[in-house]
Structures are given as C-alpha cells and as structure tokens.
Design brief:
This protein is α/β, with parallel strands linked by helices. Helix content is 42%, strand content 13%. The chain contains seven helices and seven strands. Strands 3-2-1-4-5-6-7 form a seven-stranded parallel beta sheet, with helices on both faces. Strand 1, helix 2 and strand 2 form a beta-alpha-beta unit. The structure holds NADP nicotinamide-adenine-dinucleotide phosphate. The site of NADP nicotinamide-adenine-dinucleotide phosphate has 30 residues, from helix 2 and helix 5. NADP nicotinamide-adenine-dinucleotide phosphate (NAP) binds next to helix 2 and helix 5.
Length: 251
C-alpha cells in the first residue's frame, strides 16, 4: 500500500478514535465542595481527566490557585453560610448535577486532657462537617434530582464509625462525622422514592493539611479510589458506608 495512503488511514483512525473517546468520556456533571486543596482538589482533577464536567467550590475562589489550573468551573461556597449556599443554588438553578460530593470539612485542635476540652467549641466541626453537608444537599437537591446518576456522596471518616472507635481522640470531629453518617442514612430512608443514592465514604488516611501531611496514602491515591467507587454508585448503594477502596465500613 502506498505510504501516503497508510499515513492517511493512520491519521483518520487516530482522529476517529480520539474524538469518539472524548465524546464517550463526557459522562456527567459532578460538584465537589472544598475543591481548592487536599482530597477535594485531587477528586476534581480525577473526575475532570475522566471526562466529567466538574464544578469545584472554594471559600476563596481567587486564592484557589491549583484549582484554577484545572478545566473546572469554580464557584464560591462557605458551607456554614446560608447566604453563600443560597447563592450557589441560585447560580446553578435549572442545571443538572449527576454527582454531589460533600467533601468540605475541618478538624479542630482539641485539648488533650478531657478536663480542658472547650465544650462549646465542639459545635464548630458539627456546623461544617455535618450541618454544612446537609445544608448543601438540601439546597442542591433539585439539581441532583435533574441528574442522571443521582448520587450524593458524603466524604465521611472512619472516625465517625462507632465500631472502629478503638483509640478515642477528637470528640468534636468524631461526633460530627457520626452525625454526617446519620444524615446520610436518614436521607437514604426518607428520600428513597427520589432514587438518589445517599452514601458515606471514608477517603482513607490521607496526607493533607488536615493532619499536617501525615497519612498512609496521597490525595491522588485516595481520589483514584473514590472516583472508582463514586462513579459506579447506584440506587442500590443508598444508605451504605464505604471505604475508598470499595470495601464496606461498619457504622
Ligand atoms: N485527610 C484525611 O486523612 C481524612 C480522613 C478521613 C476523612 N477526611 C475528610 O476528607 C475531607 C477533605 O479533607 P482534606 O484532608 O482534604 O482536608 P483539607 O486539606 O484541610 O481541606 C479541607 C477543605 O475543606 C474546605 N472547607 C473547610 N471549611 C469549609 C467551609 N466552612 N466551607 C467550605 N469549605 C470549607 C477547605 O477550604 P479552605 O481552603 O477555604 O479552608 C478545604 O478546601 C474532609 O471532609 C475530611 O474530614 C480526611
């Protein structure tokens, strides 16, 4: 076969496959809260490179340098601020969100002695980790209902598991993630007829700012696992608690 014909065929096949795979990969819209750093940033990158349209939220979009390098739409959101959540919802009015990932979270430093623990300060983690995720879910429910996959994935923690609590610590954080787990399960029951899958997921022990860079895995490893689990979720998974590797977690 003449070289010019071979070249033509090669180029044609390359472009057909390339365009087809791009089209096949555009699989839905995902919104990730707290996407400017840590696990949220890595999830945003993973979903984006996998062909999803990604909406990443940040408390300070202008300062979200790494997120701004990605082909994602960035919206402002402080999950504790009702006005900020309402603004997010109104700017997304009428748009479908296939997967909502409630990732934004925080861990407070607590006194090591129980006698010194500031009880009133424990509400801070509850407001962000539990009520924040609930508030965002409530505001964006119409968007998720308009989506195809219909998933609300709450980034919880093994620290929220009662059964796995063998080493104590972190009263406020543990309770806030246990509350998030409870919200996940309750919505799975109360909104069962919506066909939305409400799922809690432990992202692993991940090297991020939250734990001063300690951890067993990187954000990228966590995001790879989370992507595999979350992108495959369906109604049958609603009310479940998973590890980032897909294993079941005890409540
Ligand atoms: N790292 C781990 O080993 C581990 C283990 C189990 C579970 N998790 C969970 O995984 C999620 C991500 O944690 P990470 O390790 O990536 O932590 P991180 O690096 O500290 O990032 C936390 C993210 O949440 C955002 N955030 C905090 N408060 C917020 C608020 N009020 N409104 C909106 N966004 C807020 C932060 O935004 P700013 O940059 O503006 O502060 C940041 O984007 C959290 O829910 C965490 O509890 C982490």
């Amino acid at each position: 076969m003449p070289r010019v014909v071979i070249t033509f065929l090669t180029v044609t096949v390359f472009f057909s496959l390339g365009f087809n795979s791009v089209l096949a990969e555009n699989t839905g819209t995902v919104l990730i809260t707290g996407a400017n750093r840590g696990i949220g940033l890595a999830i945003a990158e993973k979903f984006s490179e996998s062909g999803y349209l990604v909406i990443g939220t940040a408390r300070k979009p202008d300062a979200a340098k790494e997120l701004r390098q990605l082909p994602v739409r960035i919206l402002q959101l402080d999950v504790t601020n009702p006005a900020s959540v309402a603004l997010l919802a109104s700017s997304l009015d009428g748009e479908a969100i296939d997967i909502l990932i409630n990732n934004a979270g925080m861990l407070s430093v607590e006194a090591s002695e129980f006698a010194d623990v500031d009880i009133d300060a424990l509400v801070t983690e509850y407001r962000v980790n539990a009520l924040g995720a609930l508030r965002v879910t409530q505001a964006l429910l119409p968007n998720v209902l308009a989506g195809k996959q219909k998933v609300v994935a709450n980034i919880s923690s093994m620290m929220g598991s009662q059964e796995l609590n063998t080493f104590g610590c972190c009263l406020g954080y543990r309770a806030s993630k246990a509350a998030l787990n409870s919200f996940t399960k309750t919505l799975a029951v109360d909104l069962a007829e919506t066909d939305i899958a409400f799922v809690a997921i432990h992202p692993g022990y991940v090297k991020t700012d939250m734990n001063g860079g300690q951890g067993a895995i990187t954000s990228e490893q966590s995001a790879a696992g989370l992507f595999k689990v979350i992108s495959a979720l369906s109604k049958a998974d609603s009310g479940k608690f998973y590890n980032y590797d897909g294993a079941s977690m005890p409540w």
